[in-house]
Amino acid sequence: MRVYHVTPTSNLDSIQEHGLQPRIGPLAELAGETEPRIYVFCSLEAMTTALDNWLGDAMGDVPLSAIAMDTPDDKVVRPLELYEAYAVSPIPPHCIQSIVDLETCVAFPSDFHP
Asked: What sign for the dihedral angle of Cα 33, 15, 60, 50?
């Protein structure tokens, strides 16, 4: 399943080395979440819409990057909404297909090879 994750660009070195780890991040904490998760979008359109609206507003001026991943279907739990999903177990680095800096629209880093 192809999914998309948005993260502060400052997290990319760790993500490339360790993959994505379920956490309760600042936005999840504000929303009262109690279970560590990795939130993903189910389509590029859903991610773009969120960035143009609530996610972009919530992240403010923090430089962001988008990660496209191919994950096994059993790794991602799809909630009732069709545009967003989450994982409760780590997503390893080999699932990452591409990373794009959303400020410059450039692949990060230039030598990244999935």
From this structure: negative
| 111 DSSP assignment | T
Rounded Cα distance between 64 and 11, Å, is 9
18-66 pLDDT per residue, tens: 999 999 988 888 888 899 999 999 999 999 999 999 998 999 899 999 9
* Range name among 6-10, 30-34, 45-49, 110-114 with the lowest pLDDT average: 110-114
Beta strands in the chain (DSSP E): 2-8, 38-41, 64-70, 84-87, 96-101, 106-107
Would you put residue 60 in left (φ > 0), alpha (ψ -120 to 50) or beta?
Answer: left
